[in-house]
Structures are given as C-alpha cells and as structure tokens.
C-alpha cells in the first residue's frame, strides 16, 4: 500500500475508534466498529478486521453485515474453528427470505465441506429453499447432497424444483430428462414417460436427448411401445437435421448422428418393434421411411420385402424386388427376388409373366427348389406339356442322387408321352433313366404303359419283347406272349402271331395251351379296322370245324359245330350251314338251338314247309311242354301263311294241351278267319273265344254288336243279355260303349235305373264321357223330370265337366229359372270367363253384386279388371268398415271412374286403409304420391307423418311434421308440429342445422313452446350469437310465468350482457335473478366478478361472501368465492374481521383446505382471535405436507397458548406434535421442562428427546445447543452422571459460566473417585477406540519394554531413582490410589511408584518386567479429577504398551513397526521416514531374543493386513483419551490437558480438532456412562 494511503487509512481508523469510544448507543458502536473492520480488511489486516467485525456483531446481534464479513474472512483464510458458530448466528440474524436463504446455504456448505455432515447440510438447505423457493442455487446444492446421501426422492424433488424454476427450454428439458431417469430407477416408469414427453415438447436442444433417454428407459422397462416411439422421435429429428442444419442445432442432434445411416437405423429398429407388436401397417410405413434414407441398403430392402409379404402386398413386394434386381443383385439372392415377382404375377393371373420370372430365377440359381416347384406347378395346367417335360428334366439335373435324377426323367417321359404326344422324347428320357441305373424290367413296364396310353403299337410291341427278353416275373410270360400275338395279329403279321400263340400254348399250363389253340384258330388273320372299313376278317368256318373235330367234349364240340355253321352263314355259305345243321338236327331233334337255327335258315330260304316240319318235330321231341306248345304255335303260323287252314287248326289243337289259353285264342282267331262271313261261324268263334278264356265283357259287347247289327236276323234277347253282361263285367272303353249302347238303343231305354247306372259308369270314365253323361243327366232333369233344382245342380255339373259357353249359359238359365242366387252368381262368373273385356267386366260385376245382395254379411272377392264398372263394383264391395286391405284396394283402383278430384281423394283415403291394415310401407308410398299430386293436402301429410313414424323413418317424419307446421293456420298447433320436427331431427339424425330451423319456426309462431325455446337457445348460445340470444331471451320473458325459468332467463341475459361489456345491464339482470332466487350461485359469483371489475369491492365481497355460505353450491365454487371475498376484505377493504367470518364459515362447513386454514390462522392471529387461530394451527400441524410446515404450525400454536393466551398447559397437543416431528426441538422441550404436563407424557417426551439428542450428538458432538438441551433433560430426570457429562461438554464448547463450574464441582464431589471393579477384556475393548485394534496393537503389547527402552520414557530420562520411589510398605496413599487403577485394568504383578519427574502435574509410565509409575510432585491425595485422569490414562497405556505414544509422532511409531518386522526377517521397506534409521538402530539394540522370537507371527499379520500404523497411532491416542475421561468424569479437564488450552478457552479450538470431537462424541454416547458404572465410578 502506498505510504500516503496507509497514513490516511490509519488516521481514519483512529478517528472511527475515537467516535466508537465516545458513543454509548450499541447500534452506533456496532456501525463504527464495522466501518473499522471494512478499512482493515481493505488494507489486508484481516485479523484486526475480524476482531472488529466480531465486536460489532456482539454490540448489535441484529446487525448482519459484520457477521457476513466475518464469515467471508474465515472462509477465505480457511479458518473453520469458529466458522460454524458464525454461520449459525448468521442464520438466526437473517430476516428477509433472501438473507435467510443465503445464510442457510452458506451454513450448508460449511457442514458439508468441513464437518462432513450431510444430514445437517440437508437440513440447512431445506431451510434455505423454504425461505426462498425461487432461488435455484440451494435446490442445486440440495440435489448434490441427496445424490451423495443416496436419497433418491430428495434428489428428484430438488431436480423437479429446479426444472420448474428454469426458463431456458434446453436447460429445463435436461432437468426433466434427468428427473425421468431417476423416476425410472425409482420404479415409476409412467412418470418417467410423462417427464420425457414434457421435455420433448419444449423447443430446445434437449429434444433429441429426450428421445435417447426414452429409448434407454423403455429398453430397461421392456416397453416396446415407448421404445418404438423413442426411435421414431430420434429418426424424425435426424431427418430434420439432415434437411436443415439449423433445425438439427435447435433440437440438439449431435453432429455425429446427422447421417442417413443413423436415421435409417432408428427407423429400422422402430419398424421391428412394430412388427413384434402386431402393427403391420406401422411396420411397413417405418421401413419405407428407412428406405428413403438408405435406398441402396439391401438389408432394408429385404425387411421391406418381408413386411409387404406379411401384409399380403405381393404387388408392392414385386415392385421392390424389381428395383433390387436393377441394382445388379445376382445368384440365389436374385432368384429369391424373381420368386416374389413371379408370385405377384400369379396373383394377377399373369401366367406368362410368372413363368418368365421363374425362369429368370432359375437362371440366377438353377438349384432353386422353390422356383422349380412353382414352374412345375404353373406348367401342370397342360397348356405347354413340352415345357413341363423340359422343366422336369432340368429339375433332375439339379438333384443330388442318380435315383432322384432317374425319377425326374421317368416323370418327364410320362409328360412327353401322355401330354406332349412325343414318343421319341419319352424314349430318350427313359434311356437317360436307364443310364442312371434304373432296372430294365421297370423301365420296360413303364414304357409299355406309356406306349399303351399313346396307342403306339410298334413301341408297345418293342418294349414287350424287351420285357420278355429281360426276364419277366413268374406267371407274367403268358400275358406277355398273348400281348405279342395280339399286337402282331393286329398289324397283319400272321406268322409272328402264330409264333407267339405257339409260345403261349407251349407254356405248359392247360389254360395257356387251350388259349393258344383258340387264338391260333380265331385270331390269325384278324387286324385292326381303319375308319370306314368294314369287317374284313372273320374266323373261317373250316378252322372252327377243325377245332370241333379236335374237341373231345361232345357238348362243346356240338357248340363249335353250331358256331361253324354261324360263320358259314356269315360268310355266305348258307347251304353248307343248312347241311351241317340238318345233320345235327337229325342226330338230335330235341336240340332247340339247332332246330330254331335250321328252321330260321329254311324260312329265309323260303321253305316254310320244311321250317314248320322241323319246328313241329322239335316240339314233339322236347320235354319242355311250354316250349313245345310255343313251337307248335310257331309251326301253325307258318302253315297259316302257306294257306293250309286245316293243318293250322290241327297244330293249334295239339298246342291246346300245353297252352290252352294261348291255343284257344289262336284257335278262335283261326276260326274267325276260317269262316268270317257266316253268322253261325262267327257265333262259334265267339263261343270258342269265351271258352278259351277271353274277356267276357269284350265277348259280350262283340256279341251285342253282332246280334243288333244283323237286324231282324239277330237275337234281340241275346243282344240285351250281352249288353247287360258288358255293363256288368266291362270296364274302360267297354263300359263307355255299353253305356252309349244303353242310351242309344231304344230297346234298352225302358229301364230308368239302368240308364242312371249307365250314366254313372259313363261319367266315371272322365273327359268327354263325363261331359256327355252330365249333359244327358241335365236334359233328363229339365225335360223328362222337369225338376228346376235338379236341373241347376246338373247344369252346374255339366258346366264343370265341359267348360264351354253353351254349358255355362244352360247353367245360368237353369239358375234363373230356379231363382237360385248363389247358383246364379257362380253361373254368371262361369259365363264371364268366356267373354272378353267389357262384357266380361260387366258379367263379373253383376255376379259380385248379386252375391253381395244374396249374402250382405259375407265379404265377396274383389273383382279383377280395369273397367269403370269393375272399379265401381269393387268400391261397392269394399264398404267402409270392412277389411282395410279390401277398402285400400278398391280406393286405389277407383282412378278416374268418379272424376279426377274424386280419384285423388280416393287414392289418399287408400293410404289410411293401408295404414290400418298394417301395410305401413305401402301406406307411406300412397301418402307420398298424394302429396306429390297436391302439396297442400294436409291430411295426406298427416298420413306421411303417421306412416313414417311407424316405420321409424325419422327424416321423413320430420319432413312431414315440418309441412304440417307450415300448412297449419293455427300458430299454436303449427308450433307443435315444428317443435316435434326439430326434436326428431336433433335426436335421431345428423341434420342438426335443420333441427335448429324447425325450432326457430316453432319459437317464432309460439314463444311459449318450451322444448323449441330450450333447443334453439342452446344452439344459439353455443355459437355465441349474443344479439340473437338476447332477442330470444326477451321474447321468452314475455311469455314465461315460472319463477325458476324467469330467473334462469335473467341469468342468461346477465351472462350475455357481461360478455358484451354491458356491466350495468348485467348487474341489473343479476339483481332480478337474486330477487327471484337469493341463493343463485352463478348470479352471486358473476355479480361479485362484475363488481370487482367496476371497483365496487364492498359489494363484490358481500356477493362472494354470501356465495361461500350457500350450502347447495358446489364445494369448489364456495371455496373459491370465499377465498376471493377474504382477499378483498383483507387487501382492499382492510376488514379482517369480515374476512375471518368468511373463513370461519368455510371451515365450519367442512370446505377448508390447507391453504384456507393457513389463511384462517393468519387472519385469526391478525384479529386477535387466538382461540380460533390455535384451533386452525393445530389442524394445520397435522395436515401440512412438509415436515417444516407442520413444525411451524405446531410451534406457532404452542407460542400462542404460551405467550398470548397464557395457558401453556393447553399447548400440550402442539408440543407433542412438534416433538413428534422434531423430538429434540429446544423450544418445545423448554416448555415441557417448565410446564407441569402429565408425568407419563413428560417422561415419554423427554425420554425420546434424550435418545434423539444422543443420536444426533454422536454425529455432531459440537452442537452446543443440543448438548445444553440434553443437560436440561438430565437435570429434569435427576440423571447426575449424564448431567456431569453434558456440563463438561458445554464447558468444552465455550458455554462455561460460574453456575456450570459450581455444579460440576458439586457433582464431582458426589462421584466415587476410586475404581471398584476390575475391567474384563470386553470392557477394555469398549474403552479402546473402534479403530484401535489389529496386529499393530498386539505388537506393541509384546514389545512394550523394548519400545520403552528405545523411545522412552525411562526412569533415568524422568530423573527418578530409589530416592523418589514410594515404598510399597506402609500403604502410601498415592501407591494405594495407583494400585486401585492398576488392578482395575488387569495388572496382577508388582509395580513401582515414583514421585518426581520434570513436570509436577504429569504422570508417566515406564514399561518393564516391573512396570513403574512416575507421579509428578504436584499431585497429592485425595486425587482430583485431573489427577485421576492422568493416572488412569498412564495405567491404561502401560497395559496396552503404548506409553511412548504421548510423546512420539506418527512417523516414529510407524518406524518402530517397520523395524520390528525387519528384525524378524520380514522385510518391509521404509517409505521415507527421516527418523527411521535412528529408530531401527534403537530397536535393534534394545530388542531381546525372547521378544524377537515372540513377535514373528504378529509381524506377519501386520504385513498381511496392511494396517496403517499412522492411523492406528491416532486411534491409540484416542483410546488413552477415553480412559482419561472415564476416570475424570469431566471431559473439559481431559481436553484442556490434551490441547494444552485453559478450560475457559476450549470453545475456540475444540470444534476444529478431530481428536476433541471424537472424545466429545464418546462422552455423549451411552457406552461412556455404562463404562463408568462398570468401574463403580457413578455419581452417588
């Protein structure tokens, strides 16, 4: 610093100090001291500045600036000794949220960096964020601490708060992403997805990262849907980056990822996920996107092919395959692509295209089985068999084995032969099959089959011979020789055929021999006929005769002779055949075959006499009677032809014995022919015929005709008898003939009964006979019997049997004559059936009218026809009230018979009849036709409506209603129609605009229509047509009479006016609403809102307050209104009492929420309503979400009970809650300690607080406030031992005062100063520091004497000898005191005590065979706490062999360990300790052989464990401290000795010393008091 500036600063500093000395006001003093500190800090005099800052803060604890300056200086100088207290004071002094946040943040940093107290740091940061939640810095620190502490929920909470505070979209997205990852780790995957979506929605550089993170989370969670979405998002962003670099920068796509390969990979993986999920369409689309990025990628192309094929898009797959082929794909890959093209062609029925593609596939890969199979399948349609055969041959070439190749050749041979018709190619294929090793017999058989199918005789003969030559199977040769003979015979090779048949006969079997001979006889010379050629070959008779001669069987030989005769006849040698047959006939006249054959030949030759003789001879010889009779008759017929009637009769007579009937009939026939002109002859023939069994009726009718036909010569009696016989026995035509005879022969008409029977029989014959019979019966009834009734029925029967006009007219005449209306109707209709057009219509109409007059109650059938007469008659027949279907038919068919207008009316009326009949569709069509003719026909429109409604045709119904509404003159009725039309259109159709028009028409005609108004109102309001809405409301108000509706109308008017900005008008309308309905929620809310906008806060608060008190209002509405009213009362009207009233109302109604209760508590406190405030606070302390909030509410309730109401006992609930949340809360504990709460409750709360305090003090033993609370609890519980321990800690932490010192002395006077119990090994281990263990500790026990000799202290170095030794005799008090401690730690042998040494207040131990204790001359009995502490520590050190640790540093101790190991040949290198050489020499000099031998194993353990000797040294010293404080009872005494600092100054150094902190932690632990109890040194 320049000299001049230094002098000026010094002068200013002196002046400020002078002012400070003269100033009495603390605040001004603090300000002046702060200024001094600022000057000093500015000029680098930080120690002085720190003193002045501290003095300033002490002068005015509310003055924060010097405190902050102190923190700044200590932090910069890394002087953390008092930094924690300063920061704590800084937090207490902070007032504003910003100050509190900064103070707690700095305290958190201190706790984390210097005290390694994550819990404390976290608590401080919670205070910071509670004070200023908008500051992101403490949230960041809180996140870091939570991460270190493994507090995942806390970390997530901090990140979420940071994200909400972030304004930069990229940074916000990154925080969301990190939060999502943590949510996923916590198991809340859905929240992670939501956060990722939120990050992706932000316009920043975190978009791409969000998708990458989503991919990672989805993959871990095995969520394919989210994973696919992530990959799609990545691909989309990469594509955007490729299209426009700036967009990639904006979305955060890394540079390395901006490649088409990355985008394609993402699309490809997303597509695969779609495929697995079954989304075929998505699979195809995403693969297409991938292909856009890498159009040359074969991998993508194959995936696309697979997707298209899976979806059945063969055409798309083919197009893609073609594109791939154009890029030069070859080999099997190309074949696969051609297969896809072929498949598409097959699906399009493109056979040629498919074959071309398959052939291309085979060119690319001849071994492609699929291509070959498809080609064969296509070619199997027989369109190109040659191609099929070639394909089969090619398929064989690719087969791996000769057997398979041969099979392919055989199949190809079949196709060549059977389908292609190419025998040569088939033979070639079979030849190749033979070359491949197919057995020759097998190929020969296959060739025979193919040759047979082909009809190739030469080939067939060739392969048959080959089969014979190659060795046919047993039993097969006969058939082969037969086939050869047959084949040769057919082609005219008789010699060859003879040879083959000779071989066949020579095979040795009887059958084959006989067949050979037969074939030689029959087959030689035969050949196959050409088209149009007649049979050129027949077996010659001579060969058959030769065969017959050779035949030994007489019957078979006779048969062959007959066959030979037959062959002779066929060859034209009939005479030769007749000669052979005569010989056979003569040899055996009874042979019917020979006789018949010969007779036939004689007949053909014209020799009927010989034929008759042969037949009669056979008839005489045969034993078959019936056959003989037949032969006689045939012979008789031949003689009849010869004209020999007598011979014929004789032969017939001979046949009568065997076949009497047939012979008799023939005889009768013969007799008729023999004497046809004689009456007697004819009578004889009839008698003979009758005797022969001829039909009696036929004979009788013939006899009748014969007798009547002869006139007078005939026998009339016989004729009548014959007629009666014919009538009795006859049937069919005979009956008809007999009947006609009866009716026409006068001699037979006298018997009326017989006539009637004749008529009946005649009628039974049907058709014309029936008609004749009925006509005659009618004639008899009308003319003979003159019976009108019978005449009507018989005329009707006649007309039925003979439907002719004349019969119908006779029927009509009979009916009219008999006055039979029913018959007249039928007759008229029968007559009408024979008339045309107008006459028929008239007749039919007259019949219907007569029927109606006859039976007026019975419906008559409607008439068919189009004449006016028919139409009008139908109208008469379908009277009103009849079957509506009849009425509809009649009305619809009136047409213009009554004029055009009347016809239209009738047609319209028909619709109603159809509707009544249930034929709704027809009725609708009728009504529609009517309204098309006359648009204003309101009745027909009503019919359309009724029919449409019945059919459920909503559109038609609505249209009809609309027309009815338009046509109605009465407004009320018209409005009803319009309204109904609108309702139907709205509810049942999509024509809502038309429905609105209908409602508008209805409302225009009658504003009182409620439905029309409501629907129209809602539609208009929905479109925000405010002016029209106001008009509708006004018109409705004119007719409304219901108060509730009027109120709603005024409410709607108010809403619209408010929207239009007419606030006064809106308020006026709302006034009407509230006048009609005082508790109208909406009106009150809107009134409040409008009043606020108009600045009428009192009225607004009143409206909103009233609304909050309405029980029927929605709870949320009441709550919002009440809060708004409270805001106005508090902030605008300064009326907290009214605000309190509203809040109380909400609370009592059960509507209060935590924020409302917060408000209620604050307002109650502001208004002095303490009871209400405490009630709400006690509720809030249970329901606030955060622990800090619950504590704050409980603390405030407790303070009000204590300070405002002065009833601390009623604060019990708040105290309990506060201690539940924070069991060691000082303020609550103070109230418990000072208030007479229930003893059990006090015990419970204080006990729990004690446990929590002990636990927390184990983490931070320098927390003086908590130590003080624990001391108070110990005092309240009369726990003197704990009270002594805590008071000692308070002194150590700088909280010493006269009262504490006095109490400590008093308590120490009550402490047992001498140990009572020997400590066991477990107790000794508990006294030792937790880190004081391991092989090094064992080593020092073994080497205690050596270490003492090497390092000291020794009796000589301490300057004592026999003169200073205390005699063991006499019970010297000091020796006794030492003996007690020696015994307590387990020494059993002798020891020596010396008084002296260089330090009067010190105690030293010297290890040896007889250990020695050197006590300073200033120590006397009775021993005080410091003396007890020193002796106990020294005795414990002797027991552990570590007396030298108090005077030697860590390097020296480590050097001892290394030297000991090296002494037993366990080599350990010196890490560089400067003192090692000296130590090594001293150890080597002093170690005895016994000790060297005993430490070998321990040294090995030391090396193996790699224990740190330096760290163990610190732990061993802490063990000595623990023994010392157990003996002293007051830790401040021990710490003062350790730190060499007066007790009243310990507070400034203890917190900075780790050794001190650890000792305080031990003293405040339960084990400390327990160990004192074990020694018997508890407080009496």
TrEMBL record:
It comes from the Bacteria. This is Tetratricopeptide repeat protein.
């Amino acid at each position: 610093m320049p000299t001049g500036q230094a002098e000026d600063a010094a002068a200013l500093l002196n002046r400020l100090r002078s002012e400070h000395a003269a100033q009495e006001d603390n605040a001004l003093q603090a300000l002046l001291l702060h200024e001094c500190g600022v000057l000093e800090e500015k000029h680098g005099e930080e120690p002085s500045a720190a003193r002045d800052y501290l003095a300033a803060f002490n002068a005015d604890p509310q003055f924060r600036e010097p405190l902050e300056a102190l923190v700044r200086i200590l932090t910069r100088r890394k002087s953390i000794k008092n930094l924690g207290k300063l920061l704590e004071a800084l937090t207490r002094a902070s007032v504003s949220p910003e100050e509190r946040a900064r103070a707690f943040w700095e305290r958190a940093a201190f706790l984390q960096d210097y005290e390694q107290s994550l819990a404390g740091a976290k608590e401080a940061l919670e205070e910071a964020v509670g004070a200023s939640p908008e500051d992101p810095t403490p949230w960041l620190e809180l996140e870091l601490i939570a991460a270190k502490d493994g507090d995942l929920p806390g970390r997530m909470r901090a990140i979420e708060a940071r994200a909400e505070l972030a304004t930069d979209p990229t940074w916000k997205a990154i925080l969301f992403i990190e939060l999502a990852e943590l949510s996923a780790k916590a198991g809340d995957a859905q929240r992670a997805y939501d956060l990722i979506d939120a990050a992706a929605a932000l316009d920043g550089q975190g978009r791409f990262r969000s998708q990458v993170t989503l991919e990672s989370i989805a993959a871990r969670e095995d969520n394919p849907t989210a994973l696919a979405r992530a990959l799609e998002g990545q691909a989309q962003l990469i594509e955007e980056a490729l299209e426009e670099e700036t967009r990639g920068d904006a979305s955060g796509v890394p540079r390395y990822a901006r490649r088409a390969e990355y985008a394609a990979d993402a699309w490809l993986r997303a597509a695969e996920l779609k495929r697995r999920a079954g989304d075929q369409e998505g699979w195809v689309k995403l693969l297409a996107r991938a292909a856009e990025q890498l159009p040359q990628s074969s991998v993508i192309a194959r995936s696309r092919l697979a997707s298209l094929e899976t979806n059945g898009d063969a055409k798309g797959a083919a197009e893609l395959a073609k594109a791939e082929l154009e890029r030069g794909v070859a080999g099997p890959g190309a074949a696969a692509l051609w297969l896809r093209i072929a498949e598409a062609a097959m699906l399009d029925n493109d056979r040629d295209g498919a074959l071309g593609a398959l052939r291309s596939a085979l060119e690319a890969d001849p071994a492609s089985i699929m291509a070959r199979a498809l080609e064969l399948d296509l070619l199997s349609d027989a369109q190109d068999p040659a191609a099929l055969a070639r394909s089969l041959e090619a398929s064989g070439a690719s087969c791996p084995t000769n057997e398979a190749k041969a099979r392919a050749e055989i199949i190809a041979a079949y196709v060549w032969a059977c389908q292609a018709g190419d025998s040569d190619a088939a033979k070639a294929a079979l030849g190749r099959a033979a070359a491949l090793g197919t057995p020759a017999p097998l190929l020969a058989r296959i060739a025979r089959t193919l040759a047979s199918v082909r009809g190739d005789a030469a080939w067939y003969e060739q392969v048959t011979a080959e089969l014979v030559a190659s060795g046919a199977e047993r039993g097969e040769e006969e058939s082969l020789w037969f086939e050869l003979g047959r084949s040769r015979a057919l082609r005219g090779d008789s010699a060859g055929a003879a040879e083959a048949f000779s071989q066949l006969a020579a095979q040795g079997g009887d059958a084959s021999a006989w067949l050979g001979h037969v074939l030689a006889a029959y087959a030689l010379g035969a050949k196959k006929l050409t088209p149009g050629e007649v049979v050129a070959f027949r077996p010659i008779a001579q060969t058959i005769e030769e065969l017959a001669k050779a035949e030994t069987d007489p019957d078979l030989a006779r048969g062959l002779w007959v066959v030979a005769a037959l062959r002779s006849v066929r060859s034209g040698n009939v005479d030769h055949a007749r000669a052979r047959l005569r010989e056979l006939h003569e040899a055996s006249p009874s042979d019917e075959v020979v006789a018949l054959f010969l007779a036939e030949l004689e007949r053909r030759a014209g020799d009927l006499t010989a034929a008759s003789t042969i037949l009669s001879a056979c008839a005489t010889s045969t034993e078959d009677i019936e056959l003989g009779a037949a032969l006689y008759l045939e012979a008789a017929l031949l003689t009849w032809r010869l004209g020999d009637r007598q011979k014929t009769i004789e032969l017939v007579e001979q046949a009568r014995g065997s076949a009497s009937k047939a012979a008799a009939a023939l005889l009768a026939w013969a007799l008729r022919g023999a004497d046809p002109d004689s009456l007697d002859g004819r009578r004889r023939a009839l008698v003979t015929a009758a005797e022969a069994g001829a039909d009696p009726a036929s004979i009788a009718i013939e006899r009748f005709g014969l007798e009547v036909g002869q006139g007078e010569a005939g026998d009339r009696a016989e004729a009548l008898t014959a007629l009666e016989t014919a009538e009795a026995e006859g049937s069919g035509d005979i009956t008809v003939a007999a009947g006609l005879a009866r009716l026409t022969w006068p001699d037979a008409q006298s018997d009326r009964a017989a006539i009637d029977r004749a008529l009946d029989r005649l009628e039974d014959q049907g058709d014309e006979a029936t008609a004749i019979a009925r006509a005659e019966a009618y004639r008899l009834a009308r003319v003979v019997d003159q019976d009108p009734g019978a005449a009507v029925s018989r005329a009707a029967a006649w007309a039925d049997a003979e439907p002719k006009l004349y019969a119908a007219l006779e029927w009509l005449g009979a009916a009219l004559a008999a006055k039979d209306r029913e018959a007249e109707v039928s007759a008229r209709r029968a007559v009408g059936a024979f008339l045309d057009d107008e006459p028929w219509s008239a007749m039919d109409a007259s019949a219907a009218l007569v029927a109606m007059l006859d039976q007026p109650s019975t419906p008559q059938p409607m008439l068919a026809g189009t004449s006016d007469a028919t139409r009008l008659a139908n109208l008469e027949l379908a009277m009103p009230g009849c079957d509506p279907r009849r009425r509809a038919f009649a009305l619809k068919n009136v047409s213009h018979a009554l004029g055009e207008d009347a016809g239209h009316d009738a047609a319209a009326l028909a619709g109603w009849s159809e509707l009544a009949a249930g034929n709704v569709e027809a009725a609708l069509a009728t009504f529609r036709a009517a309204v098309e003719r006359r648009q204003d026909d309101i009745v027909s429109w009503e019919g359309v409506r009724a029919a449409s409604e019945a059919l459920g045709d909503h559109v038609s119904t609505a249209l009809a209603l609309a027309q009815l509404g338009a046509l109605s003159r009465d407004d009320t009725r018209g409005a009803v129609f319009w309204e109904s039309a609108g309702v139907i259109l709205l509810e049942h159709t999509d024509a809502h605009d038309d429905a609105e028009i209908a409602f508008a028409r209805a409302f225009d005609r009658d504003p009182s229509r409620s439905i029309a108004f409501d629907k129209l109102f809602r539609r208009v309001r929905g479109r925000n047509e405010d002016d029209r809405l106001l008009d509708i409301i006004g018109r409705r108000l004119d007719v409304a009479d219901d108060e509730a509706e009027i109120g709603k109308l005024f409410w709607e008017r108010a809403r619209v006016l408010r929207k239009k900005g007419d606030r006064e008008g809106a308020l006026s309308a709302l006034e009407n609403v509230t006048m009609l309905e005082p508790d109208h929620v909406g009106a009150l809310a809107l009134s409040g809102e409008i009043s606020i906008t108009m600045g009428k806060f009192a009225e607004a608060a009143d409206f909103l307050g009233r609304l909050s008190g309405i029980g029927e209002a929605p709870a949320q509405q009441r709550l919002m209104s009440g809060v708004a009213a409270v805001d106005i009362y508090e902030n605008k009207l300064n009326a907290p009492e009214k605000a309190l009233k509203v809040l109380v109302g909400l609370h009592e109604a059960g509507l209060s929420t935590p924020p409302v209760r917060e408000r209620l508590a604050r307002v109650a406190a502001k208004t002095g309503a303490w009871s209400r405030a405490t009630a709400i606070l006690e509720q809030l302390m249970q329901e606030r979400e955060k622990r800090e909030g619950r504590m704050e509410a409980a603390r405030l309730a407790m303070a009000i009970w204590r300070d405002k109401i002065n009833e601390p006992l009623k604060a019990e609930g708040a105290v309990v809650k506060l201690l539940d949340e924070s069991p060691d809360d000082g303020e609550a504990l103070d109230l418990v300690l000072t208030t007479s709460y229930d003893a059990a409750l006090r015990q419970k709360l204080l006990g729990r607080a004690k446990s929590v305090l002990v636990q927390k003090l184990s983490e931070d033993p320098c927390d003086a406030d908590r130590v003080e609370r624990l001391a108070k609890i110990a005092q309240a519980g009369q726990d003197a031992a704990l009270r002594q321990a805590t008071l000692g800690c308070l002194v150590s932490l700088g909280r010493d005062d006269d009262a504490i010192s006095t109490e400590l002395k008093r308590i120490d006077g009550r402490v047992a100063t001498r140990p009572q119990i020997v400590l066991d090994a477990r107790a000794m281990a508990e006294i030792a520091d937790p880190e004081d263990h391991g092989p090094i500790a064992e080593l020092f026990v073994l080497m205690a004497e050596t270490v003492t000799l090497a390092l000291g202290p020794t009796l000589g170095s301490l300057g004592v000898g026999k003169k200073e030794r205390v005699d063991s005799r006499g019970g010297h008090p000091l020796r006794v005191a030492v003996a007690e401690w020696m015994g307590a730690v387990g020494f059993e042998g002798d020891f020596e005590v010396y008084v002296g040494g260089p330090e009067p207040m010190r105690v030293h131990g010297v290890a040896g065979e007889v250990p020695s204790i050197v006590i300073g001359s200033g120590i006397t009995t009775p021993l005080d706490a410091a003396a007890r502490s020193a002796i106990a520590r020294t005795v414990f050190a002797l027991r552990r062999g570590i007396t030298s640790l108090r005077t030697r540093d860590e390097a020296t101790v480590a050097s001892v360990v290394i030297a000991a190991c090296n002494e037993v040949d366990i080599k350990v290198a010196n890490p560089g300790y400067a003192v090692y050489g000296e130590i090594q020499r001293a150890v080597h000099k002093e170690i005895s052989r016994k000790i060297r031998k005993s430490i070998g194993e321990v040294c090995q353990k030391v090396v193996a464990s790699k224990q740190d000797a330096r760290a163990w040294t610190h732990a061993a010293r802490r063990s000595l401290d623990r023994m010392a404080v157990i003996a002293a009872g007051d830790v401040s005494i021990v710490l003062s000795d350790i730190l060499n600092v007066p007790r009243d100054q310990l507070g400034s150094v203890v917190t900075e010393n780790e050794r001190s902190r650890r000792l305080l932690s031990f003293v405040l632990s339960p084990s400390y008091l327990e160990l004192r109890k074990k020694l018997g040194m508890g407080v009496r």
